[in-house]
Amino acid sequence: MPKKIEEICGREQVKNRLKQFIKRRNFPHLLFVGSDGIGKTTIASLFSKEFLGRFFQANYKIVYANVPLTSDEMKQASSEAYVSTSKIGSLAGRKITTPAFIQVRIKPFVQLKALGEVPFKILIVKNFDELGGNQQGFRRLMEIYGSNCRMILITSKISSIIDPIISRCQIFLISSTDFDSFKNLILDISEREALEIDIKVIELLYKLSNGQISYAIDLLQLCSISGNKIDINGLYKNSINTKQDLMRSLLLVCFNGDFPKARELSRTIQSNYKYRSKEIFTLLLKELLKMPFSNFTRNKLINLIADADFRAIDGRDDDIQISNLLSKFCYLSEYL
């Protein structure tokens, strides 16, 4: 995992532009565009850390647009949506129409000035396209609080971003790592970890991972379990264990009624891929739809996933929510 912008693999043009921002101590709102898992959030976070320096903790925030508000946050947004008639000013007695997500998670951060010797705060909004119509609210925030806070918006679907947002941002296209940079990084890792790997294997690793460093490293770790020599057969064998294959395996274990094994496998998936409960539920649903169940059974299983996803909004422990769903799958296995 890189700790500085300079340590990011490849993407030299992107790194040079970001380093110029740091040197000038100023930058506009940014829009990072690239495929999932390409490193957009890592680059944005490292840039923020170097730009803000020792004042990073007080002036940095990252929010996920695809994570629903909790019940407490919804109550807070509701209570703040109405200004009492006892208040003085033009808003007295009126209803505020600011979207709840912006009112609760964004506005309290951006409306306060930066702390310490930095020109402004930095807010990262991941999966920005998930906001849909609420993007209009961000346009207003950029205009009103731009001197307090700069935003780095992250998306894999630029077509879902409204034109007023695009026009107010400088766009960064984050592509996959070029092969030469990828090769040098893998050779460096192999040397440090005492792994044997040749150029043909690295070429295959690059293709299998689509240039995604995190996935390539995961494959190397899986292959290294059986020995220090990384070969083509080992790569192919371990690359089969994709995310969806793991989800299918998890479902099959549940439908065999083996809850302890299912819970162990789910914890391994969460640990290796850093999945939250919402992501697990989405992948389970995607795989479930491929399985040959009757409409009644499929609908029953989908309802269980929907209930688990709803409860997870207020839940504080992802493992408990996931385990609860898996236990219900295991219980239903007796009737499948």
What would you note in describing this structure?
- The chain is of the alpha/beta class and 336 residues long.
- It has 3 domains: 5-70 and 99-173, Rossmann fold (3-Layer(aba) Sandwich), CATH 3.40.50.300; 179-239, Helicase, Ruva Protein, domain 3, CATH 1.10.8; 243-335, Zinc Finger, Delta Prime, domain 3, CATH 1.20.272.10.
- The protein is built from 16 helices and 5 strands.
- Strands 2-3-4-1-5 form a 5-stranded parallel beta sheet, sandwiched between helices.
- The longest helix is centred in the C-terminal third of the chain and has 18 residues, at 295-312.
- The radius of gyration is 23 Å and the shape is flat.
Number of strands: 5
Mean pLDDT over the residues: 82
Tell me, briefly, the overall form. flat
The ordered string of helix (H) and strand (E) elements is: HEHHEHHEHEHEHHHHHHHHH
Named CATH topology of the largest domain: Rossmann fold
Sheet of most strands: 5 strands, parallel
Q: Kindly estimate the percentage of residues that lie in beta strands according to DSSP.
A: 5-15%
Level-1 CATH class name of the largest domain: Alpha Beta
